[in-house]
Amino acid sequence: MTSPIIGQSRQIVEIRDLIKNVADTCLNILITGETGVGKGVVASSLHEASPRKSRPLVTVNCAALPETLLESELYGYSKGAFTGAMKTRRGKFQMADKGVLFLDEIGDMPISLQSKILHVLQTGLFSPLGSDQEIRSDVWLIAATNQDLEAKIEKREFRADLFYRLNIIKIEIPPLRERRDDIPLLVDHYISQYLSQYPAREIELPDSKVLDKLMQFPWPGNIRQLQNIIKKQLVVNDWNAVIEELAHDAASHESHSGASKDNTNVVGADRRNSSGASFDDKSPSTERDGTGAGRERRQGRRKSDESVRKTREGSKRSDAEERRDWKERRDAEELSDCTLPQKATKGKVYHGRRAGDVKPRRRKGDIPGDSILNEFLVDGDSLDSLNREFSLGNIKKKVISRVESEVIQYVLDKTAWNRSKASKILKVSYKTLLTKITELNLEPPD
Protein backbone atom coordinates (compact mmCIF):
# COMPACT_ATOMS: atom_id res chain seq x y z
CA MET A 1 0.00 0.00 0.00
CA THR A 2 1.36 3.40 -0.96
CA SER A 3 1.66 6.27 1.46
CA PRO A 4 -1.60 8.20 1.88
CA ILE A 5 0.39 11.39 2.50
CA ILE A 6 -0.52 13.60 -0.46
CA GLY A 7 1.81 16.29 -1.75
CA GLN A 8 5.03 17.06 -3.61
CA SER A 9 6.26 20.01 -1.53
CA ARG A 10 9.73 19.81 -0.04
CA GLN A 11 8.38 19.35 3.50
CA ILE A 12 6.11 16.46 2.53
CA VAL A 13 8.81 14.72 0.51
CA GLU A 14 11.13 14.94 3.53
CA ILE A 15 8.44 13.49 5.81
CA ARG A 16 7.86 10.55 3.45
CA ASP A 17 11.61 9.90 3.29
CA LEU A 18 11.86 10.04 7.09
CA ILE A 19 9.01 7.55 7.44
CA LYS A 20 10.84 5.11 5.18
CA ASN A 21 14.04 5.52 7.19
CA VAL A 22 12.57 5.03 10.67
CA ALA A 23 9.67 2.63 10.10
CA ASP A 24 11.78 -0.50 10.57
CA THR A 25 13.45 0.76 13.77
CA CYS A 26 10.28 1.03 15.88
CA LEU A 27 11.84 3.87 17.87
CA ASN A 28 9.43 6.07 19.81
CA ILE A 29 8.17 8.91 17.62
CA LEU A 30 6.62 12.26 18.47
CA ILE A 31 4.48 13.86 15.74
CA THR A 32 3.82 17.58 16.10
CA GLY A 33 1.72 20.04 14.16
CA GLU A 34 -1.36 22.19 14.25
CA THR A 35 -4.84 20.75 14.51
CA GLY A 36 -5.98 19.23 11.23
CA VAL A 37 -2.60 18.82 9.51
CA GLY A 38 -2.86 15.03 9.35
CA LYS A 39 -0.94 13.65 12.32
CA GLY A 40 -3.10 10.53 12.29
CA VAL A 41 -2.30 9.97 8.61
CA VAL A 42 1.43 10.07 9.36
CA ALA A 43 0.93 7.56 12.19
CA SER A 44 -0.95 5.25 9.80
CA SER A 45 1.84 5.59 7.23
CA LEU A 46 4.45 4.65 9.84
CA HIS A 47 2.43 1.58 10.80
CA GLU A 48 1.93 0.58 7.17
CA ALA A 49 5.66 0.92 6.38
CA SER A 50 6.82 -1.01 9.46
CA PRO A 51 7.34 -4.74 10.10
CA ARG A 52 4.33 -4.49 12.44
CA LYS A 53 1.82 -3.68 9.69
CA SER A 54 0.16 -7.09 10.07
CA ARG A 55 -0.50 -6.30 13.74
CA PRO A 56 -3.08 -3.76 14.94
CA LEU A 57 -2.74 0.00 15.04
CA VAL A 58 -4.57 1.05 18.21
CA THR A 59 -5.44 4.73 18.68
CA VAL A 60 -6.24 6.51 21.95
CA ASN A 61 -7.33 10.16 22.05
CA CYS A 62 -5.94 11.38 25.36
CA ALA A 63 -8.01 14.57 25.22
CA ALA A 64 -11.34 12.80 24.78
CA LEU A 65 -11.48 10.93 28.11
CA PRO A 66 -11.36 12.03 31.75
CA GLU A 67 -8.45 10.80 33.86
CA THR A 68 -10.17 7.77 35.42
CA LEU A 69 -11.57 6.50 32.13
CA LEU A 70 -8.30 7.14 30.30
CA GLU A 71 -6.40 5.00 32.80
CA SER A 72 -8.80 2.06 32.46
CA GLU A 73 -8.80 2.52 28.68
CA LEU A 74 -5.01 2.24 28.51
CA TYR A 75 -4.38 -0.54 31.04
CA GLY A 76 -7.68 -2.37 31.28
CA TYR A 77 -9.20 -3.61 34.53
CA SER A 78 -9.99 -6.83 36.34
CA LYS A 79 -13.44 -7.98 37.41
CA GLY A 80 -14.59 -6.11 40.52
CA ALA A 81 -11.92 -3.41 40.23
CA PHE A 82 -14.64 -0.77 40.65
CA THR A 83 -18.41 -0.51 40.74
CA GLY A 84 -19.78 -1.75 37.44
CA ALA A 85 -16.69 -3.77 36.51
CA MET A 86 -18.63 -6.98 35.91
CA LYS A 87 -15.89 -8.65 33.88
CA THR A 88 -12.22 -8.31 33.07
CA ARG A 89 -11.44 -6.00 30.18
CA ARG A 90 -8.24 -5.70 28.20
CA GLY A 91 -6.62 -2.28 27.82
CA LYS A 92 -5.13 -0.68 24.75
CA PHE A 93 -1.60 -1.72 25.70
CA GLN A 94 -2.70 -5.36 25.52
CA MET A 95 -4.67 -4.84 22.31
CA ALA A 96 -1.64 -3.25 20.65
CA ASP A 97 0.80 -5.99 21.68
CA LYS A 98 3.33 -6.58 18.87
CA GLY A 99 1.66 -3.69 17.05
CA VAL A 100 1.49 0.11 17.29
CA LEU A 101 -0.10 2.23 20.01
CA PHE A 102 -0.88 5.76 18.82
CA LEU A 103 -1.43 8.24 21.67
CA ASP A 104 -3.06 11.25 20.05
CA GLU A 105 -3.15 14.62 21.86
CA ILE A 106 -0.71 13.37 24.48
CA GLY A 107 -0.19 16.94 25.64
CA ASP A 108 -3.63 16.70 27.28
CA MET A 109 -2.76 13.61 29.32
CA PRO A 110 -2.99 14.33 33.08
CA ILE A 111 0.45 14.47 34.66
CA SER A 112 -0.60 11.83 37.20
CA LEU A 113 -0.90 9.27 34.37
CA GLN A 114 2.32 10.25 32.66
CA SER A 115 4.45 8.41 35.20
CA LYS A 116 2.66 5.13 34.41
CA ILE A 117 3.27 5.63 30.69
CA LEU A 118 6.93 6.25 31.45
CA HIS A 119 7.07 3.03 33.49
CA VAL A 120 5.67 0.99 30.59
CA LEU A 121 8.17 2.53 28.18
CA GLN A 122 11.05 1.70 30.52
CA THR A 123 10.06 -1.84 31.54
CA GLY A 124 7.44 -3.01 29.05
CA LEU A 125 5.27 -4.00 32.04
CA PHE A 126 1.96 -2.70 33.40
CA SER A 127 -0.81 -3.80 35.75
CA PRO A 128 -4.54 -3.52 34.95
CA LEU A 129 -6.68 -1.63 37.45
CA GLY A 130 -7.59 -3.80 40.43
CA SER A 131 -4.90 -6.38 39.68
CA ASP A 132 -1.45 -7.07 41.10
CA GLN A 133 -0.46 -9.09 38.07
CA GLU A 134 2.07 -7.49 35.75
CA ILE A 135 1.51 -7.96 32.04
CA ARG A 136 4.20 -7.58 29.42
CA SER A 137 3.37 -5.56 26.33
CA ASP A 138 5.55 -5.06 23.28
CA VAL A 139 4.23 -1.94 21.58
CA TRP A 140 5.70 0.63 19.24
CA LEU A 141 4.62 3.92 20.77
CA ILE A 142 3.81 6.86 18.53
CA ALA A 143 2.55 10.05 20.16
CA ALA A 144 1.14 13.24 18.67
CA THR A 145 0.36 16.71 19.94
CA ASN A 146 -0.55 20.19 18.73
CA GLN A 147 0.92 21.75 21.87
CA ASP A 148 4.37 22.99 22.82
CA LEU A 149 5.44 20.24 25.23
CA GLU A 150 8.65 22.03 26.20
CA ALA A 151 6.58 25.01 27.32
CA LYS A 152 4.35 22.66 29.30
CA ILE A 153 7.46 21.19 30.94
CA GLU A 154 8.44 24.66 32.16
CA LYS A 155 4.95 25.04 33.62
CA ARG A 156 5.27 21.59 35.26
CA GLU A 157 2.34 20.32 33.20
CA PHE A 158 4.34 17.66 31.37
CA ARG A 159 7.10 15.37 32.59
CA ALA A 160 10.50 16.11 31.08
CA ASP A 161 11.61 12.47 31.34
CA LEU A 162 8.53 11.31 29.41
CA PHE A 163 9.13 13.98 26.77
CA TYR A 164 12.69 12.74 26.17
CA ARG A 165 11.45 9.16 25.97
CA LEU A 166 8.88 10.10 23.34
CA ASN A 167 10.99 12.56 21.38
CA ILE A 168 13.57 10.12 20.04
CA ILE A 169 12.37 10.83 16.51
CA LYS A 170 10.36 13.98 15.87
CA ILE A 171 8.19 14.49 12.81
CA GLU A 172 6.91 18.04 12.44
CA ILE A 173 4.05 18.47 9.95
CA PRO A 174 3.79 21.93 8.37
CA PRO A 175 0.44 23.73 8.22
CA LEU A 176 -1.33 23.80 4.87
CA ARG A 177 -0.59 27.50 4.34
CA GLU A 178 3.14 26.62 4.19
CA ARG A 179 2.63 24.03 1.45
CA ARG A 180 0.14 25.78 -0.84
CA ASP A 181 1.41 24.01 -3.97
CA ASP A 182 0.03 20.75 -2.55
CA ILE A 183 -3.54 22.09 -2.46
CA PRO A 184 -4.49 21.13 -6.08
CA LEU A 185 -3.22 17.58 -5.45
CA LEU A 186 -5.18 17.37 -2.20
CA VAL A 187 -8.34 18.68 -3.88
CA ASP A 188 -8.08 16.08 -6.68
CA HIS A 189 -7.39 13.31 -4.17
CA TYR A 190 -10.34 14.05 -1.91
CA ILE A 191 -12.76 14.63 -4.80
CA SER A 192 -11.86 11.19 -6.18
CA GLN A 193 -12.10 9.64 -2.72
CA TYR A 194 -15.53 11.07 -1.90
CA LEU A 195 -16.95 10.35 -5.35
CA SER A 196 -15.94 6.70 -4.95
CA GLN A 197 -17.70 6.65 -1.57
CA TYR A 198 -20.81 8.36 -2.94
CA PRO A 199 -21.02 7.29 -6.62
CA ALA A 200 -24.51 8.79 -7.04
CA ARG A 201 -23.15 12.27 -6.31
CA GLU A 202 -21.34 14.74 -8.55
CA ILE A 203 -18.65 17.28 -7.72
CA GLU A 204 -17.68 20.01 -10.15
CA LEU A 205 -13.94 20.04 -10.75
CA PRO A 206 -12.56 23.46 -9.76
CA ASP A 207 -11.16 25.56 -12.59
CA SER A 208 -7.86 27.41 -12.42
CA LYS A 209 -9.40 30.57 -10.93
CA VAL A 210 -11.02 28.61 -8.10
CA LEU A 211 -7.79 26.73 -7.44
CA ASP A 212 -5.92 30.04 -7.24
CA LYS A 213 -8.35 31.26 -4.61
CA LEU A 214 -8.06 28.01 -2.66
CA MET A 215 -4.28 28.32 -2.72
CA GLN A 216 -4.44 31.91 -1.48
CA PHE A 217 -6.66 31.13 1.52
CA PRO A 218 -4.65 30.66 4.78
CA TRP A 219 -6.58 27.52 5.90
CA PRO A 220 -6.59 27.92 9.70
CA GLY A 221 -8.23 24.48 9.93
CA ASN A 222 -5.61 22.96 7.63
CA ILE A 223 -6.38 19.75 5.70
CA ARG A 224 -9.40 18.94 7.86
CA GLN A 225 -11.00 22.22 6.80
CA LEU A 226 -10.21 21.48 3.15
CA GLN A 227 -11.78 18.01 3.50
CA ASN A 228 -14.94 19.48 4.97
CA ILE A 229 -15.21 21.99 2.13
CA ILE A 230 -14.99 19.21 -0.47
CA LYS A 231 -17.49 17.05 1.44
CA LYS A 232 -19.89 19.97 1.36
CA GLN A 233 -19.51 20.06 -2.41
CA LEU A 234 -21.24 16.66 -2.49
CA VAL A 235 -24.39 18.56 -1.52
CA VAL A 236 -24.08 22.09 -2.92
CA ASN A 237 -21.70 21.45 -5.87
CA ASP A 238 -21.01 25.16 -6.24
CA TRP A 239 -17.45 26.45 -5.94
CA ASN A 240 -18.71 30.04 -5.93
CA ALA A 241 -20.50 29.30 -2.66
CA VAL A 242 -17.30 27.74 -1.31
CA ILE A 243 -15.28 30.86 -2.07
CA GLU A 244 -17.91 33.02 -0.39
CA GLU A 245 -17.87 30.76 2.67
CA LEU A 246 -14.09 30.96 2.90
CA ALA A 247 -14.28 34.74 2.62
CA HIS A 248 -16.81 34.79 5.45
CA ASP A 249 -14.57 32.54 7.56
CA ALA A 250 -11.65 34.87 6.90
CA ALA A 251 -13.68 37.88 8.01
CA SER A 252 -14.87 36.07 11.15
CA HIS A 253 -11.34 35.08 12.13
CA GLU A 254 -10.15 38.60 11.40
CA SER A 255 -12.83 40.09 13.66
CA HIS A 256 -12.05 37.62 16.43
CA SER A 257 -8.33 38.32 16.13
CA GLY A 258 -8.91 42.07 16.28
CA ALA A 259 -11.05 41.78 19.41
CA SER A 260 -8.48 39.66 21.21
CA LYS A 261 -5.66 42.16 20.53
CA ASP A 262 -7.06 44.54 23.14
CA ASN A 263 -5.80 42.13 25.79
CA THR A 264 -2.36 41.44 24.32
CA ASN A 265 0.95 43.21 24.69
CA VAL A 266 2.91 44.85 21.88
CA VAL A 267 4.85 41.72 21.00
CA GLY A 268 1.62 39.75 20.70
CA ALA A 269 -0.02 42.41 18.56
CA ASP A 270 1.43 41.02 15.35
CA ARG A 271 1.09 37.37 16.15
CA ARG A 272 -0.88 34.70 14.35
CA ASN A 273 -3.93 33.06 15.84
CA SER A 274 -3.80 29.65 17.53
CA SER A 275 -4.21 27.79 14.25
CA GLY A 276 -1.63 29.91 12.46
CA ALA A 277 -4.01 31.93 10.28
CA SER A 278 -3.39 35.64 9.94
CA PHE A 279 -5.93 38.40 9.59
CA ASP A 280 -6.16 42.15 8.97
CA ASP A 281 -5.45 44.56 11.79
CA LYS A 282 -8.75 46.38 11.42
CA SER A 283 -11.78 44.94 13.18
CA PRO A 284 -15.23 46.34 13.97
CA SER A 285 -14.92 45.26 17.58
CA THR A 286 -11.80 47.39 18.07
CA GLU A 287 -13.06 50.43 16.18
CA ARG A 288 -16.30 50.96 18.09
CA ASP A 289 -14.66 52.68 21.05
CA GLY A 290 -15.14 56.34 20.20
CA THR A 291 -13.45 57.74 23.30
CA GLY A 292 -10.24 59.73 23.09
CA ALA A 293 -8.49 57.16 25.26
CA GLY A 294 -9.67 54.39 22.97
CA ARG A 295 -8.37 56.23 19.92
CA GLU A 296 -5.03 56.88 21.58
CA ARG A 297 -4.72 53.23 22.53
CA ARG A 298 -5.53 52.17 19.00
CA GLN A 299 -3.11 54.68 17.49
CA GLY A 300 -0.35 53.62 19.87
CA ARG A 301 -1.04 49.97 19.17
CA ARG A 302 -0.95 50.54 15.42
CA LYS A 303 2.41 52.32 15.71
CA SER A 304 3.75 49.50 17.85
CA ASP A 305 2.41 46.92 15.42
CA GLU A 306 4.12 48.74 12.56
CA SER A 307 7.46 48.81 14.35
CA VAL A 308 7.20 45.11 15.15
CA ARG A 309 6.34 44.27 11.55
CA LYS A 310 9.30 46.27 10.23
CA THR A 311 11.70 44.30 12.40
CA ARG A 312 10.51 40.98 11.00
CA GLU A 313 12.38 39.36 8.10
CA GLY A 314 12.17 41.46 4.97
CA SER A 315 11.00 38.51 2.90
CA LYS A 316 8.03 37.84 5.15
CA ARG A 317 4.85 39.77 4.58
CA SER A 318 2.74 40.91 7.50
CA ASP A 319 -0.36 38.97 8.45
CA ALA A 320 -2.60 41.91 7.54
CA GLU A 321 -1.05 42.24 4.07
CA GLU A 322 -1.51 38.56 3.28
CA ARG A 323 -5.15 38.61 4.32
CA ARG A 324 -5.88 41.91 2.61
CA ASP A 325 -4.27 40.73 -0.64
CA TRP A 326 -6.32 37.55 -0.55
CA LYS A 327 -9.52 39.58 -0.22
CA GLU A 328 -8.55 41.97 -3.00
CA ARG A 329 -7.73 39.12 -5.37
CA ARG A 330 -11.02 37.42 -4.55
CA ASP A 331 -13.03 40.58 -5.17
CA ALA A 332 -11.16 41.38 -8.39
CA GLU A 333 -11.68 37.90 -9.79
CA GLU A 334 -15.36 37.40 -8.90
CA LEU A 335 -16.92 34.99 -11.33
CA SER A 336 -19.15 36.91 -13.69
CA ASP A 337 -22.81 35.98 -14.20
CA CYS A 338 -23.49 34.18 -17.44
CA THR A 339 -25.33 36.34 -19.98
CA LEU A 340 -26.17 34.77 -23.32
CA PRO A 341 -26.25 37.01 -26.42
CA GLN A 342 -29.57 38.83 -26.74
CA LYS A 343 -31.64 38.36 -29.87
CA ALA A 344 -31.73 41.25 -32.31
CA THR A 345 -34.63 43.56 -31.66
CA LYS A 346 -34.79 44.91 -35.22
CA GLY A 347 -34.92 42.80 -38.31
CA LYS A 348 -34.36 39.09 -38.75
CA VAL A 349 -30.98 37.51 -38.21
CA TYR A 350 -29.47 35.00 -40.63
CA HIS A 351 -26.25 33.32 -39.53
CA GLY A 352 -25.26 36.31 -37.44
CA ARG A 353 -26.24 38.92 -40.10
CA ARG A 354 -29.33 41.12 -40.02
CA ALA A 355 -31.55 41.18 -43.08
CA GLY A 356 -30.45 44.03 -45.27
CA ASP A 357 -26.77 43.79 -44.33
CA VAL A 358 -24.52 43.99 -47.38
CA LYS A 359 -22.92 40.65 -48.18
CA PRO A 360 -19.50 40.60 -49.81
CA ARG A 361 -19.66 39.51 -53.44
CA ARG A 362 -17.95 36.31 -54.45
CA ARG A 363 -17.46 34.55 -57.73
CA LYS A 364 -19.60 31.61 -58.71
CA GLY A 365 -18.09 28.34 -57.44
CA ASP A 366 -15.79 30.00 -54.89
CA ILE A 367 -15.70 28.36 -51.46
CA PRO A 368 -15.49 30.76 -48.49
CA GLY A 369 -12.49 30.24 -46.25
CA ASP A 370 -14.65 29.31 -43.27
CA SER A 371 -16.86 26.86 -45.17
CA ILE A 372 -17.32 23.36 -43.80
CA LEU A 373 -16.53 22.08 -47.31
CA ASN A 374 -12.87 22.88 -46.78
CA GLU A 375 -12.66 19.98 -44.35
CA PHE A 376 -13.55 17.55 -47.17
CA LEU A 377 -11.24 18.94 -49.86
CA VAL A 378 -7.93 17.21 -50.49
CA ASP A 379 -6.38 19.62 -53.00
CA GLY A 380 -8.07 22.48 -54.79
CA ASP A 381 -11.81 23.11 -54.84
CA SER A 382 -13.04 20.87 -57.66
CA LEU A 383 -15.42 17.96 -57.19
CA ASP A 384 -12.52 15.61 -57.89
CA SER A 385 -10.78 16.99 -54.78
CA LEU A 386 -13.51 15.83 -52.39
CA ASN A 387 -12.35 13.04 -50.06
CA ARG A 388 -14.10 9.75 -49.34
CA GLU A 389 -15.84 11.06 -46.22
CA PHE A 390 -17.78 13.61 -48.25
CA SER A 391 -21.52 13.09 -47.87
CA LEU A 392 -24.48 15.14 -46.79
CA GLY A 393 -24.72 13.11 -43.58
CA ASN A 394 -21.08 13.72 -42.64
CA ILE A 395 -21.39 17.40 -43.48
CA LYS A 396 -24.39 17.61 -41.17
CA LYS A 397 -22.38 15.98 -38.35
CA LYS A 398 -19.49 18.39 -38.91
CA VAL A 399 -21.79 21.40 -38.83
CA ILE A 400 -23.50 20.24 -35.65
CA SER A 401 -20.13 19.53 -34.03
CA ARG A 402 -18.81 22.97 -34.97
CA VAL A 403 -21.92 24.73 -33.64
CA GLU A 404 -21.91 22.68 -30.44
CA SER A 405 -18.24 23.45 -29.90
CA GLU A 406 -18.78 27.18 -30.39
CA VAL A 407 -21.84 27.37 -28.12
CA ILE A 408 -20.46 25.17 -25.34
CA GLN A 409 -17.13 27.00 -25.37
CA TYR A 410 -18.98 30.33 -25.14
CA VAL A 411 -21.14 29.29 -22.18
CA LEU A 412 -18.20 27.69 -20.35
CA ASP A 413 -16.09 30.81 -20.79
CA LYS A 414 -18.91 33.04 -19.55
CA THR A 415 -19.40 30.87 -16.46
CA ALA A 416 -15.65 30.74 -15.78
CA TRP A 417 -15.82 27.04 -16.62
CA ASN A 418 -18.38 26.27 -13.92
CA ARG A 419 -19.56 23.05 -15.55
CA SER A 420 -22.52 22.59 -13.24
CA LYS A 421 -23.86 26.06 -14.04
CA ALA A 422 -23.12 25.64 -17.76
CA SER A 423 -25.02 22.33 -17.94
CA LYS A 424 -28.12 24.02 -16.50
CA ILE A 425 -27.90 26.88 -19.00
CA LEU A 426 -27.41 24.46 -21.91
CA LYS A 427 -30.21 22.24 -20.53
CA VAL A 428 -28.13 19.06 -20.67
CA SER A 429 -27.06 16.71 -17.91
CA TYR A 430 -23.77 17.27 -16.14
CA LYS A 431 -22.37 13.97 -17.49
CA THR A 432 -23.44 14.84 -21.04
CA LEU A 433 -21.60 18.14 -20.82
CA LEU A 434 -18.43 16.43 -19.57
CA THR A 435 -18.66 13.97 -22.48
CA LYS A 436 -19.06 16.82 -24.99
CA ILE A 437 -16.10 18.69 -23.54
CA THR A 438 -13.95 15.58 -24.05
CA GLU A 439 -15.29 14.81 -27.54
CA LEU A 440 -14.84 18.39 -28.75
CA ASN A 441 -11.42 18.81 -27.09
CA LEU A 442 -12.52 21.96 -25.30
CA GLU A 443 -10.12 23.52 -22.82
CA PRO A 444 -10.35 26.48 -20.45
CA PRO A 445 -8.45 29.63 -21.45
CA ASP A 446 -4.97 30.17 -20.02
Q: Rough shape?
A: elongated
Biggest sheet: strands side by side, in what order? 2-5-8-1-9
Q: Calculate Rg over CA atoms.
A: 32 Å
Main beta sheet:
5 strands, parallel
CATH structural class of the largest domain: Alpha Beta
Which residue ranges are poorly predicted, with pLDDT under 50 across at least 5 consecutive positions?
260-298, 300-305, 307-317, 334-364
Q: What is the CATH architecture annotation of the largest domain?
A: 3-Layer(aba) Sandwich
Please describe what this structure looks like.
The protein is of the alpha/beta class. It has 3 domains: 10-174, P-loop containing nucleotide triphosphate hydrolases (Rossmann fold, 3-Layer(aba) Sandwich); 180-282 and 297-304 and 318-331, no CATH class; 366-439, Orthogonal Bundle (Arc Repressor Mutant, subunit A). The protein is 46% helix and 8% strand. It has 17 helices and 11 strands. The strands form 4 sheets. A 5-stranded parallel beta sheet has the order 2-5-8-1-9. It has a two-stranded antiparallel ribbon with strand order 3-4. A hairpin with an 8-residue loop joins strand 6 and strand 7 (135-136). Mean pLDDT is 76; it is low at 260-298, 300-305, 307-317 and 334-364. It comes from Desulfamplus magnetovallimortis.
Name a few traits of the molecule.
446 residues; alpha/beta; Rossmann fold; Arc Repressor Mutant, subunit A; 3 domains; five-stranded parallel sheet; two-stranded antiparallel sheet; 11 strands; 8% strand; elongated
